[in-house]
Amino acid sequence: MTSREEAIEIPVDARARQWVAALPWRQAALAGIGGALAIGLLAVMNATETLPLLIPPFGASCVLVFGVSASPFARPRNVIGGHVISAAVGLVAVSAFGGGVLGVAAGVGLAIAAMILSDTVHPPAGANPIVVALSGAGWPFLIAPVLIGAATIVVCGWIYNRMRTGASV
């Protein structure tokens, strides 16, 4: 290296500080808090055991709704519709083919196709047929946890985004 290159080289610790300073800390903290509150609300309602509302795909839904709310995958229509459609397709597939490999594979594949055709693609919902098969869920699964849980996330996301942007709730 020439002395000129050495003079303009930024030390590693300074680059690390610049990188850390450039991170969207406020956005990340607010999105994390929003997701935690939505899942916390579902978990509290789930704890009563009268209305089971907590399924793993909802964690991924919160990433979209609170972390990248401008994404088309985070639209209310996609969150609610995607979850309901994929869960319904999963229930049909598991009823037709059983909860084994064929039922799970058909459920996920058909759920993807159904979400695309209905313009309700929500990637986390693609896991619903797997949840249906592994849990042995029946048709009430569509209402609780799927419909009520997805709607709760959408409402929490709406309130969160109104508060984040300063609009009245």
Describe this protein's structure.
The longest helix has 23 residues, at 25-47. The N and C termini lie far apart (59 Å). The protein has 169 residues and is an all-alpha fold. The chain contains eight helices and no strands. The model has no long low-confidence stretch (mean pLDDT 92). It has helices at residues 3-8, 12-22, 25-47, 57-67, 76-97, 101-117, 128-135, 143-165. The protein has one domain (3-165). It comes from Hyphomicrobium nitrativorans NL23. This is Membrane protein. Keywords: Membrane, Transmembrane, Transmembrane helix.
Count of separate structural domains:
1
Shape: globular
Instruction: State the major sheet.
Output: none
Order of helices and strands: HHHHHHHH
What amount of the residues lies in strands? under 5%
Question: Features of this protein?
Answer:
169 residues, mainly alpha
Write the layout of secondary structure elements.
Layout: H1 3-8, H2 12-22, H3 25-47, H4 57-67, H5 76-97, H6 101-117, H7 128-135, H8 143-165
Helix pairs in contact: 3-4, 3-8, 4-8, 5-6, 5-7, 5-8, 6-7
Pfam family, one: TM_HPP
Keywords: Membrane, Transmembrane, Transmembrane helix
Organism: Hyphomicrobium nitrativorans NL23
